[in-house]
Input
Amino acid sequence: RSVVERVEALPAARRALVLPALDLAAAGPTPRAQALEARLAAALRAVGRAAPRGRSSAWADDPGALFVRRVRDELVRRDGADVALDVLVGAEPDRWPDGDLTFVVDVGSWRIVDATPTADPCARELAAALALRLHARDERRPLAVLPGRSAAHGLSNAATAAFDARLTAALVERLGPGVPVRARRGLVERLREAPDDPGRALSVGLAVDVALDAARGVAVARLRDLDAPEAPLAVVEAPLVHRAGVDGLEGAARHSVDPRRLDAHLDAAHDAALEEHLAQAEREALDRAAARLYEGRAADAVRALEDLRARHPAFEARVEPLLRLAEARVAAGDLARALDDLERAIALAPDDPRPRVAHARLCLAEGRRLFLLGKRPWYQRDDAFQFRKAAALLDRVELAPLAVDPALRRDLEALRDALRREL
Output
């Protein structure tokens, strides 16, 4: 049956108001939605079932207010309607030429009394399983389909909102009038006012929430008793047919209840993208520097790594370029700056043993060189200045964190003892 025929089948004297058609994939009104809305309003007028005002946008700025009884009473008084038609454009991808679902909503109770049937086998299978559980419990409390989420990132989006609409339509068809199902219009906005208490926000005792797992190709629905939310009453799943867009972010700002979670996800995605960019640039610079060192062009290797660190402040906080830069400076004969680079790396990553070990080995090698340089034949006095330089160099090494390399620590301690004897 058409939507108009469904309205005509309602008890006599009921008049329908067409809510502004909502395109789930768009941020605002679209020509397609407006055209569908106009055709539906015209059809209602033709059969004498249109409300006197015929159409209202009075609550478009705050759809969540439609869950407040006095607001709906005002809707009836202003627009002369006791039934609202909620048109969701793009919610049904297969069966209907326009891809639309329409819900016939009782304005007084804000529950759905009829809906366009969905052709989605996943939504129908979940609805059948949930209806069995509800009928077995002889439930009569109102139920709401909460905004579903993508299992990939835990957010709602246009694809999950479309599935929520299809599941709602399937539940209305399966449950009949025995279990009232709350209307979808204004549901997200209402939940944003009390995200931790959906029962109070929506005046329901039961809720269904769905996680869509595109990777596994499954939809998992949980039936929850909002008066005792510790554990779900039932968990059912069905093969997910429509996976397109489930893991994306299209419409996430409009359909997600918790904007903070969306912001956190976007921040994490931005950080991940930045990290990938930095890692790629780092790999390229390290490869260039390694090639220059292999060719014996240590100064060019130093320049390549210095250019990388100067490119963006984020590179200054990365350890690997500092390790390779110290290596290149040693090859270029710049020991002092190599030690400075390694000490910066130690400060950046105190738990990373690589900078500490490299720093200790460099100090040990140079300390040994200075020790041998200070030793003289038996008939000449040793050069104590070289010994003091070697001792000062070893004083820059912390022995305690070098437990990862016991042999290196023993060599350092032996050289320190030899220097003490000479000094």
